[in-house]
Design goal:
Elements: E1 9-15, H1 19-30, E2 35-39, E3 49-53, E4 56-60, H2 77-85, E5 94-96, E6 100-104, E7 107-111, H3 115-125, H4 130-142, H5 155-162, H6 166-178, H7 189-202, E8 205-207, H8 211-224, E9 228-231, E10 235-240, E11 245-250, E12 255-263, H9 267-271, E13 290-298, E14 311-315, E15 329-337, E16 353-361, H10 363-367, H11 371-391, H12 412-421, E17 423-429, H13 431-438, E18 462-464, H14 473-490
Parallel strand pairs: 1-2, 1-12, 2-9, 6-14, 12-18
Antiparallel strand pairs: 3-4, 5-8, 6-7, 10-11, 11-12, 13-16, 13-17, 14-15, 15-16
Length: about 500
């Protein structure tokens, strides 16, 4: 119960303890604002959190922390976050990726945190496109993607101004879409720039112990600053009075007031809390794109089976179809992630291997299933996604007591047998899981198709931060929280 809060007044209420909400609250608490974070669930992190089954911790959301900045770097998003939140980079315990790739039939592009590798790969695989690619990169570098008054334009249309080969256009779009697009088969070019820089020009890193390291660092800083936080405390209603939020009612009936409210739960989700809005408010700007993900725990390190990439983005044809599937899952494209394959120090190694496979899914189809149908569908699609991942991975190599050199597995059936042999545990989440633990309508991971870059709503003291404000990924979410706190509460612009 939260009755002890009844009648309390705050400088700012932050709705949602995800990355953006935590960052906004920390920033405000630094300036002696009385801040309260409320979170409906019992764990912080939002879309990027973790859970435990049989004592084993599973990350959700975090494949990689994008926007990596090496020690000594300046003016990069991660550096700005560390400075604005007064965090030490050692608290995040980041290790760089080993290397990732994009794969479609007939083409493969490797990339790492050294952009020169990606450029050289494009030059080798698409020699006739390299000049246009370099012009595109210069355009991306000079583009002010954080300006709040930028006119929208199609990313696909801009790419085709520089590139004439659809295979290369699609290969650039696959990682960008899977790591941030809320629109089917396209996204706003400013969003493309944010993601292109985050993925290719800055790159991937991961804390050794996963996303909980980042959550712990943020919660510790917030507590240190004296911020207040209430978990299992959802908002029932934001009471609107003449264009102003006059009070907030929690699920248990407790009422508080706040000068400003920053909501990280999404555009439509926030509108539907407001007493002056209909129950389907924001329906014209509600995301339709959701995902399933399988998580396989391996008895061996992935690299020992020949799987050495950090992340593999795949598509089974030159044409990339990024939209809500008609079936429960569309396994034609997706993402394969190996959390083991980061450049951890020699004395540190994850005790178990992990294989994560992500693909597009249809929320409505999953929601229509009975409990038994749901369980059966999870089993079916788990197996289907494992088989699909093996289509884009090297044949597994095994070493055991009977072999002095690793034998190559001859074909896919044997590859599946090897994967089954070395599977220790497995789990899978669906669009329903996403909605249950985040509140996102339709399990839409990346929220509203049309972002509200200013963060403003129809109420003069209620603002958005996070995915629907327009910054993406863990780094982007924190930057959004900081920016909206600075702009709308601190007045720092």
């Amino acid at each position: 119960m939260t009755s002890e809060l009844n009648g309390a007044h705050y400088d700012c209420l932050v709705i949602g303890a995800g990355m953006s909400g935590l960052a906004a609250a920390i920033r405000l608490a630094m300036f002696d604002k009385r801040v309260l974070i409320v979170e409906r669930h019992n764990a912080a992190g939002g879309l990027n959190s973790f859970y435990s089954i049989a004592g084993r911790k599973y990350d959700v959301g975090l494949h990689a922390m994008t926007n990596y900045a090496p020690p000594g770097a300046k003016r990069l998003p991660l550096i700005k976050i560390l400075r604005q939140l007064r965090l030490d980079r050692d608290q995040l315990d980041l290790s760089e990726q080993c290397g990732s790739k994009i794969v479609i039939p007939g083409y493969s592009l490797n990339f790492s945190n050294d952009f020169a590798l990606f450029e050289s790969e494009v030059a080798q695989v698409f020699p006739e496109q390299i000049d246009g690619f370099r012009r595109l990169v210069e355009h991306v570098k000079s583009f002010n993607e954080t300006a709040l008054d930028i006119q929208e334009e199609s990313a696909i249309a801009v790419l085709r101004e520089f590139l004439s080969d659809d295979a290369l256009v699609n290969m650039l779009m696959i990682p960008v879409c899977y790591y941030g697009s809320a629109r089917e088969n396209d996204l706003d070019f400013s969003q493309f720039v944010i993601l292109f820089k985050a993925l290719f020009m800055e790159g991937f890193a991961r804390p050794f112990d996963g996303v909980r390291v980042i959550i712990r660092a943020l919660l510790s800083k917030y507590r240190e600053l004296g911020g207040e936080r209430k978990m299992k405390c959802g908002v029932r209603e934001i009471v609107a009075d003449n264009g102003h939020a006059s009070r907030v009612i929690f699920d248990d009936g407790t009422e508080i007031t706040a000068d400003k409210i920053i909501s990280s739960i999404g555009y439509a989700e926030t509108l539907r809390l407001c007493s002056d809005q209909p129950g389907d408010a924001g329906r014209d700007n509600t995301g339709a794109l959701s995902f399933v993900e399988t998580i396989t725990v391996l008895k061996k390190q992935p690299a020992s089976l020949g799987w050495k990439d950090t992340i593999v983005f795949f598509n089974n044809s030159e044409h990339f179809d990024y939209r809500r599937p008609k079936d429960l899952v569309d396994c034609r494209s997706g993402v394969i992630c190996f959390p083991n394959n980061y450049q951890y120090s020699d004395e540190r190694k994850l005790e178990e291997g992990f294989l994560r496979v992500t693909a597009l899914a249809n929320y409505d189809r999953w929601a229509a299933l009975t409990d038994q149908e749901y369980a059966d569908a999870k089993d079916q699609w788990y197996e289907t996604l494992q088989r699909r991942a093996l289509d884009f991975l090297p044949m597994p190599r095994v070493r055991d007591k009977e072999h002095t050199t690793p034998p190559m597995v001859a074909h896919k059936a044997q590859a599946r047998l090897v994967l089954e042999q070395y599977t220790e545990a497995k789990d899978m989440f669906t669009p329903l899981t996403i909605t249950k633990f985040t509140g996102h309508l339709s399990g839409a991971v990346y929220g509203a198709p049309n972002k509200v870059k200013t963060g403003r709503t129809h109420l003069d003291n209620v603002f958005l931060c996070g995915t629907d404000q327009g910054f993406l990924g863990i780094t982007g979410a924190m930057l959004s929280g900081i920016s909206m706190a600075n702009l709308h509460v601190l007045g720092a612009g």
